[in-house]
Amino acid sequence: MNGNSTDQFFKSTVLGHPSGLFVLFFTEMWERFSYYGMRALLVLFLTASLLDEGWGWPREHAMALFGSYVGLVYLSTMMGGYFADKIIGFRYAVLVGALLMTLGHASMAIETQWSIYLGLGLLVIGNGFFKPNMTSIISEMYKDRPEKKDGAYTIFYMGVNAGAFLGILLCGYLGEKVGWSLGFGLAGIFMFFGLVQFWLAQNIFGAIGLKPKKDDTNSIEAQDNDKRVPFTSWQLGLILLMVVLGLLWIINAPATTITGGEFNIFSFLGENGNNMAILTALGLFLVLLIYRFTQYSKITRDKLIAVTFFALLSVFFWAIFEQSPGTLTIFAKDYTDRTLDGTSANIFRIVNAAITLIPLAIITWVLFLLFKQTFAKYKWSNLFLSLSFLIVWAIAIWMLLDQLKDDKLEVPASWFSVLNSLFIITLAPLFSKWWESKYNPSANMKYGIGMFLLGLGMACVAFGAMGIEPGAKTASVSMIWLILVYLFHTMGELCISPVGLSYVSKLVPRRMIAFMFGVWYLAIAIGMKGAGVFGENVDKVADESGISYFFWILTIISLIAAFFSVVMTPIIKKLMHGVR
User: Which Gene Ontology terms of cellular component type are present (predicted)?
Assistant: First the structure.
């Protein structure tokens, strides 16, 4: 067997995939637990009154800081990807990232002004090191088994969502009911468990992700004989300018909002200085991208154009999908009837218990299967992992018992965002089977189906809201519309998000993989910021034409994108040169 074959990883398998995939699955799960747990609390904490031990910020200020935090989290992945590719290797990048994030959560638990900002900064940098390199390790593990890649990313994506689901549910509940510090602290404890578990089991990855060696014949660089296009000094200068403009903008925009215009680095550009700065940066990025495409060999260029097409569609997808923490939560809070009593309250308690305990039980079963395969070699890693599960079980049971106390029950507005992760955990295996069957649709069809489902979800809430008068501040629409939105949106997400990552790894030359994952996350960051821009206009549209009209606009944008994706199928298929 040659030295660079990946068949060795398939000797010890869990559910038909290498045990190593599940070590990554649990590491990523605790990282997402801490990220989403903290994310669910941040805006609540900033906007909670001083009496409730929050900071008493207006919603607009909290959303401005939050939007920039989420944007920075995705932008920092480009830096982390570059460092890992060129200097420290994927594996150390994951460890450095996990350590910085543990410190970031610990810092937020202190709750003073400087510690919250320091914590957010550490989380951004840590995430940059962590996120792109997890996907890069999977990409390397499956390089000789491309047909199993879509399935592997879908399983990995389930880990991501299991973590998000438990994080929102448990950190959110503890933070709101007991104290903010406990919620933030819990997130940090689980990040630490993820770090230790990965560190103790890292030999399972063989030589993957160690420091890159300059003259290694098995290295990514040596095996790749495609035409080289190194960055010249003027290109690096342009990149530096774009990065500086982008970073200044993303920090300055919320600062301008929060200080009411007193603090504004770009004030010399006039009152639209912030917009001019970011548009300049995006313009320069497009110029550089197009110029570099002209320099590659034809096949590489074609494949990179195909990746860029999918990245562009992703911007639209995320801008509409990410209405969940914004306009859809406002819709849940102000326009949806969430009070339950008697039988309906009991039904909710039973459903809530089921959706907490069943996913936990399934993931505990996967943990048990991993145990059987790896306990002999990686005893301490497994023991740490089981300790973290015992704590989660204890908190989940405490939460469910705590909810039995009141007769009347109000479903929290944030509870609906748990549905997304729940539906993913349930539906991911079905979609994974579909992608591995003979009915596997082409990339463009997957994107078309995903955008169509996104539009269908928005149409549900638009239809449900049709009775609401323009300018109305409250209403009591049935909860069923929101549940349908999350169902259709999740099915759309399963067609787009894990599939997108898989195509980047198949189309991009291997030496550029972590950098192109970075560009992919840049597209997501632009989409996230776009979601905020859409969301800022919801009140204006609702006052003039009714909130239903706002959701119909998003429906139409989704359907146009779906149509565009399907129509472009023959062109993109040609550019992909046989990659399925």
Answer: plasma membrane
